[in-house]
Amino acid sequence: MERKLFTSESVAEGHPDKVADQIADAILDEALRLDEHARVACEVFTSTEFVLIGGEITCKGTIDYEGIARKVLRKIGYTNPEYGIGADTCEIKVVVKKQSPDIAQGVDRGSALEQGAGDQGIMFGYATSETEGYMPLAISIAHKLVRTATEMRKEGRFPGARPDMKSQVTMDFTDEKNPRIDTILMSVQHNPDVDMDSFRAFIHENIMIPVAKSFGYNTDFKYLINPTGAFVIGGPQGDTGLTGRKLIVDTYGGSSRHGGGAFSGKDPSKVDRSGSYYARYMAKNIVASGAADKAEVQLSYAIGVAEPLSIRVDTFGTEHVSNDKILAACREVFDARPGAIISVFKLTTPDFKYADTCNYGAFGRPDLNLPWEKLDKVPQLRKILGI
Length: 387
Description:
The protein has 387 residues and is of the alpha+beta class.
């Protein structure tokens, strides 16, 4: 009998692509602090001792792009050029221009609730009853592995570790009622003088096993740690970094489809971001209501148009009421216009920090009080669906 295996990966905040994402989102946060109506589409590229900041930004205020980038690098732990990039030594180049007025005329129209979508596109949201947070198992475990390792590194409890890290978790769903961890893979950047046997033993005993136990799963999994051997050269020196290259890490680890649009560096008028948040909100409330065990919501938009062009719900045969009823209930309960999403989730207020959502996934975050993770629509859905 063939086993049913599924794998997801995650990356730590020191991964070069995540470095770029964090700088882009920190710039977005500053733009919205200065001007809640700022329009931001920021892209960042990183390489050895180099950061390039580009994109289109319209904002009432002066943004210190270089200062923000250096602050982000310092917070991650890239304080020494020996690590591939240093917060105080790297070159930073800024090539930012204003947003096209052609886009603005379609987005900024009528009342705030009637503003048009910032672009065309398709977005997906997903939820499953696999975990308490309604997230897939493999990506949840993968995120916790690198989050735990990073916290230990920053607290000085992970000797020899450097910022760049990746994890990968393979789950065995052959017995769907009793899934098991099949394999855990971790690649962790380290100082050149570490003893690799001790380093691997530390990761297995102090990170992998405790994380597996925290989810209540088996500890007799297969494991791989730095399978190529040494991982001294990492971060932007080991590989270039680019905003928006970790889409599956940011969402559901491959358990759900993805529309293709990145989140980081985009203000919420861009439905790649706000629409994806709302689709997750819809899917999570559907599953939490008991209407289905799994739900994937697709939204589509046209630039300059407020109402979504289409709404689709797929429950993969796990529904407890008909899909037609679920879709009809969604149309009654949820308002997926970009202006409504921004208003309900308060996505342009200074208190909301996009940079906080940049690492370890934008969904199912027990450490953050994210508005799209609320289950406030469950009672209304249950009433309409008769559950």
